[in-house]
Design the sequence.
């Protein structure tokens, strides 16, 4: 495993392209990353891009991490997604004391996380920690994970029917639990339009004990200092990578389309696609969409990162723009791929040219919460001086 700051994750991502391409059929048929590919990604540090330097991690800045995930996604969306999820969750190793993190995750560092921030499990306080059980779905990368970061509802009472604990506002109290991956059982529920290689199956834990020291409040303060660990900006730092995934797929679709257009005609005419005016127009439009959305994300996320590094007292304006840019990038990536898919005609429906895979994958990724149209509503509320209807703005 790698944990040195001199390591170049973007170059490592590019170097894996041949192995990723060779693994595509297996990913589609088995709905997970093949073991050798997952191990190669782990050795390259691509599951732990945000892991804290205090525990031996690279603590990669978000723009560099963005480019690494983008390169992976340019070849295959599922591979980029697995890097995004594991790396985004790895930042939360910084909510543990550094000594404990080094002990749990090994030296050299080897942290491959699957997790869920949705509290679909339950945790009952017992001596020294919590008794945890439940089911969590959409656990991307759980097949190759070695640790689970799971949000749980804290349960009150010793009766036969414990009730959820509530805070002063009457909201459920939740807490993140860090659990070894072998404490759960994977149920293969992942049968989807796209992103099949992510293996985003369900995980079930009947009952396991989690020591108090391996738990933390999701939106509480981190014991570590530094721009990665600011609760006000950590969502942007994490979600920048889901935008990288979408934009990488859009770029991969463009690469594929250009190759197709220079080699093929259509069922109605042998004239190369590239020699047709409508195709030329669509290509230019799609390029502008992809490059424009990418520029907005890099600029806005860079501004958040700069504000966090400078310790700006109120990074709200920068966070607002970055959240809008992330949603915009994901939705525009879908739009660009749609343009290219339909311009390719019947060529696009065949698996051998990769365009149909990018089409399926980007549409599946576009259902992530970061891409929801409601994010524009929340951003608009903030711009109009109202309180947004969701946290993190």
Sequence:
């Amino acid at each position: 495993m790698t944990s040195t700051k001199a390591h170049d994750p973007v170059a490592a991502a590019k170097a894996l392209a041949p192995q990723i391409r060779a693994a595509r059929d297996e990913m589609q048929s088995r709905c997970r990353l093949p073991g050798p590919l997952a191990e190669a990604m782990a050795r390259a540090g691509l599951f732990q891009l945000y892991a804290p330097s205090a525990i031996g991690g690279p603590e990669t800045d978000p723009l560099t991490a963005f480019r690494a995930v983008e390169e992976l996604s340019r070849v295959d969306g599922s591979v980029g997604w697995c890097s995004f999820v594991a790396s985004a969750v790895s930042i939360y190793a910084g909510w543990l004391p550094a000594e404990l993190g080094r002990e749990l995750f090994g030296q050299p560092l080897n942290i491959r996380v699957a997790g869920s921030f949705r509290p679909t499990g339950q945790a009952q306080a017992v001596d020294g920690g919590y008794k945890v059980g439940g089911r969590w779905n959409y656990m991307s990368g759980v097949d190759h994970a070695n640790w689970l970061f799971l949000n749980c509802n804290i349960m009150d009472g010793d009766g036969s029917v414990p009730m959820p604990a509530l805070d002063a506002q009457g909201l459920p109290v939740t807490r993140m639990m860090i659990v070894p991956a072998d404490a759960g059982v994977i149920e293969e529920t992942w049968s989807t339009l796209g992103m099949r290689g992510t293996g985003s199956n369900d995980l079930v834990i009947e009952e396991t004990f989690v020591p108090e020291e391996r738990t933390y409040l999701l939106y509480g303060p981190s014991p570590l200092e530094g721009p990665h660990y600011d609760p006000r900006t950590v969502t942007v730092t994490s979600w920048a990578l889901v935008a990288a995934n979408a934009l990488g797929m859009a770029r991969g679709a463009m690469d594929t389309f250009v190759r197709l257009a220079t080699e093929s005609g259509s069922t109605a005419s042998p004239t190369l696609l590239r020699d047709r005016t409508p195709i030329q127009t669509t290509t230019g439009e799609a390029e502008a969409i992809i490059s424009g959305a990418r520029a907005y994300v890099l600029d806005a996320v860079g501004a958040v990162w700069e504000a966090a590094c400078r310790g700006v007292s109120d990074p709200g304006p920068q966070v607002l723009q970055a959240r809008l840019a992330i949603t915009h990038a994901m939705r525009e990536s879908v739009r660009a791929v749609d343009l290219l898919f339909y311009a390719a005609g019947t060529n696009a429906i065949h698996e051998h040219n990769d365009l149909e895979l990018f089409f399926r994958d980007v549409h599946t990724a576009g259902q992530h919460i970061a891409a929801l149209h409601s994010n524009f509503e929340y951003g608009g509320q903030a711009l109009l001086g109202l309180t947004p209807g969701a946290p993190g703005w």
